[in-house]
Amino acid sequence: MDIRKINRGLSVSPQIAPADVAELKMAGFRSIICNRPDGEGNDQPTFAEIEEAARTAGLEAHYMPIIPGRVADEDAGRFDAAISDLPGPVLAYCRTGTRSTTLWALAEGARGTPLPTILAATKAAGYDMSGVVRRIANGGKTPTDVADFSHDIVIIGGGSAGVSVAASLLARVSDLDIAIIDPQDVHYYQPGWTMVGGGIFEPEVTARTMGSLIPRGVSWIKAAVSAFEPANNAVILDGCRVVRYNRLIVAPGLKLDWDAIEGLPETLGRNGVTSNYRYDLAPYTWKLVKGMKSGKAIFTQPPMPIKCAGAPQKALYLSGDHWFKSGDLANIEIEFCNAGGVLFGVKDYVPALQEYIARYNAQLSFMHNLVRIDGPARKAWFSVTDAGGNKEIVEKSFDMIHVVPPQTAPDFIRVSPLADAAGWVDVDQTTLRHKTFENIWSLGDVMNAPNAKTAAAARKQAPVVANNVLADIGRVKGIAHYDGYGSCPLTVERGKIVLAEFGYGGKLLPSFPGFLVDGTRPSRISWLLKERILPPIYWKAMLKGKEWMARPEVVG
């Protein structure tokens, strides 16, 4: 843990884990405040998990989530009151500790504490609150006429899309002034988590330090974005610091909304409740699968859009394959509860998938949306919609349930001027340029083009955005077009994959000739591609600006 003392009664820290709570107790803390909304990160424990650990240790736990970009003076007042009401000393945490420190600084400013005193305390703790002080001095509004950072091209997000587009930019023009904004210390190869949940990969092979992947020559601003002021070409960070840009690329990924399912945060990672959509839970999936010899296994899929639409059923197939080969399948009932009405959105791949549904004797329950779960009771409730649009709540029992949470754009995107009515970044689906702000582009899971949200899609989008940003600067000629390409390697059994590759409108876009790989049929070659070839391509090519089989179509 990285505990930083603000004063005698308050310390702050980045995200803590349930296992840290006992150590906090030993360090003398009596209360914990969580300022981070659930679902901000793929390796983030829920507050319910922290709260249970705190209860066990005899500590108070208080949930006060603050959406990035919406730290209000009233929030600071509530934070101040909580510190006063809770037994001290108190530890407050968020993603990096910055939000918690900002709340304290604003509360102290409202109390009339001299600004140099606030700056000295936060600087000693390792947090730069100069932007907050400017906000206090400016009557509560962060001025954007003075920048803490200024770069020609600013990229928000250090995931697969953000790092790839930075590398693609530098591969074209090496002397660019680029910065990536991302608070995370670890970068994840998320497509590998399905394989972790199937017992094929160890989780550690899917993670690398962020610092090792940021392209050389790119500045890394290790902070979270709070808000956008596109009219002023400015991004405001946690702590009210300001980043100015000439061109902005937005690629922060999406948010996993665990809290949207009642009771889910309290039971994740125990009571047979798991998900391959979180780094620390994928190993639990494999533990459950290995240990299950009989009973009921439910696999869920929420309403679209979601990250990798095939992932919910990949978990089913790999689990079913293990039980099939272990001889336990006859004693295990499998059910796939899908909030949608079809097994897969591109019909050409459905026949092969149906064969495996039959092989594992899985029941398909369409229009079943998980809304509530009781882990200790091993029960789940689904909202079921019939052909006439009527809804009813249906209760199901389980011994194991693999849950995929609903997914939205991150909160700081949804409340921003960049978002469409549904909260996603509003872009032209061909050029990936923002429809309103001409010096902004977006790629990856956060934008609203009607393509599959997969790493393979980001691999094709990154060169398009890189080309089009440079065309706007005047460093290259021609506009690149994105055709909606996405790929979903459906792991139907250990050793075979249905390689779904398609673009806008479900048009098939195979990367290989049919005599080599027929993507509509299960293939051993496709499995080798997923297991052996794609991870090195990801780490050594896609994130390095080597656009193997990803060169964009350039017009004009």
From TrEMBL:
Residues 151-264 form the FAD/NAD(P)-binding domain. Gene3D superfamilies: FAD/NAD(P)-binding domain (3.50.50.60), Protein tyrosine phosphatase superfamily (3.90.190.10). It holds the Pfam family Pyr_redox_2. CDD domains: PTP-bact. Residues 2-108 form the Beta-lactamase hydrolase-like protein phosphatase-like domain. NCBIfam families: TIGR01244 family sulfur transferase. This is TIGR01244 family phosphatase. It comes from Hoeflea alexandrii.
